[in-house]
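Table 4 source record.
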Amino acid sequence: MGDRAVGKCDHYLHEGDEIDEGTFEYKGCWGCWHFEENGVLMDVSQAANCFNVSPSTIIRWIKNGKLVGRLYERIRKGDWNSGPKRKYYIENKIGDGMDGS
């Protein structure tokens, strides 16, 4: 996973700016209602639904190397962002055979 765009921010200060992975992690954009994902990353719940397993299984697969994923941790302190401080994501490869199709 590199510093590619993972979504957009529709906050009036950003006017639809693309959000790269570095900014995504620094600000913890996953918890902000201004952030719109572009489908590059899939969170644990989405992956669990695709594989028909529990979210804890997805996290275990990431930790064991069965799935390529990453734990993002919000770095910015004292933020108004009320979302979780840490969140796992995997690359969204649905359509690339990841879901067995």
